[in-house]
Design brief:
This protein is an alpha/beta fold. The protein has ten helices and ten strands. It has one domain: TIM Barrel (Alpha-Beta Barrel), CATH 3.20.20.220.
């Protein structure tokens, strides 16, 4: 069965009423060894039938060729539905249009449109390309005007670092949806309340597009520290109390980290999220274990 590249198949088509699906994120390979590892991971996850798989974009667009090659190969050679990341970093509007068209020509019609972070330092001042986009809603509009694409955008449970306050941050997400986006995926978080408050804020503004929580399995102290860097907030005390004493015991840290991640997913499923988006770091063992803990049937997570 080949599902991946069909223009008639979208992220929205993959949702299941009253059930929670799951999806995964990969990064394009940096070399031959990475590519072999990536494809082992893709084939392992394919057996569990995720709703879609997204492929990220490197800093300043450095991996755009590899992203296109990877998403195209997923569309051609697997039963998976690929979602390509697009970012405005380092690209003119003309270059972005060419890239959108290239994905469409390869049968990739689902994209995640994000402004992107400044290369080297996500917290640095954003400097747009002189002939490019300034905000993600401009990229959404560019994709929407380029053909039949299903568009996702990013949302931030802890606010985007450049947002002055929660209300303005929420307004920006709503604006991206109203400009033409079809769904949103959240940045990582460790406590469900932050995500649920984001969902409530969007709903109060009449925005009901599917919002997928982004979850990163906690497997090592390095992953936990990466979360703190990506989210812009510290590790919650309740989680640090469970994990910090285990930092010198890799097996115990991993087991407790996966238990914490499973508990987070269980709470999100109970709250009725449409899907859970796992950031894999191109390693699938932890994701497979969490999915099995939650209960899975043909790509759908069991209710708990």
């Amino acid at each position: 069965m080949t599902r991946g590249g069909s223009a008639a198949t979208t992220v929205l088509d993959q949702l299941r009423p009253e059930r929670t699906v799951f999806s995964v994120e990969f990064s394009p390979p940096r070399g031959d060894e990475d590519e072999q590892e990536l494809w082992r991971s893709i084939r392992e996850l394919e057996q569990l039938d995720p709703a879609f798989v997204s492929v990220t974009y490197g800093p300043a667009g450095s991996s755009r060729r590899r992203t296109l090659r990877t998403t195209s190969r997923i569309a051609r050679e697997t039963s998976l539905l690929p979602v390509a990341h697009l970012t405005g970093v380092g690209h003119s509007a003309d270059e972005l249009q060419q890239l959108i068209a290239a994905h469409g020509a390869e049968g990739v019609h689902n994209v995640l449109a994000i402004r992107g972070d400044p290369p080297g330092d996500p917290s640095a001042e954003w400097v747009p390309h002189p002939r490019g986009i300034r905000h993600a809603d401009e990229l959404v509009r560019l994709v929407r005007n380029s053909g039949d694409y299903t568009i996702g955008v990013a949302a931030f449970p802890y606010m985007h670092p450049s947002s002055p306050d929660v209300d303005e941050d929420t307004r920006r997400v709503v604006n991206k949806i109203r400009t033409g986006a079809d769904f949103a995926i959240s940045q990582v978080f460790l406590q469900a309340d932050y995500f649920l408050r984001l969902r409530d804020r969007l709903a109060l503004r009449g925005c009901h597009a599917p919002l997928f929580p982004g979850v990163m399995p906690i497997t090592t102290p390095r992953v936990l520290d990466t979360f703190a860097q990506l989210s812009g907030v510290g590790v919650p005390d309740s989680i640090a109390e469970r994990l910090d004493p285990l930092r010198q015991n890799p097996a115990a840290f991993r087991a407790e980290g996966l238990q914490l991640t499973t508990e987070l997913c269980q709470q999100l499923i109970t709250e009725g999220v449409p899907g859970i988006h796992f950031f894999t770091l191109n390693r699938t063992r932890a994701v497979r274990e969490i999915i099995q803990n939650l209960g899975i049937s043909r790509g759908v997570l069991a209710s708990v």
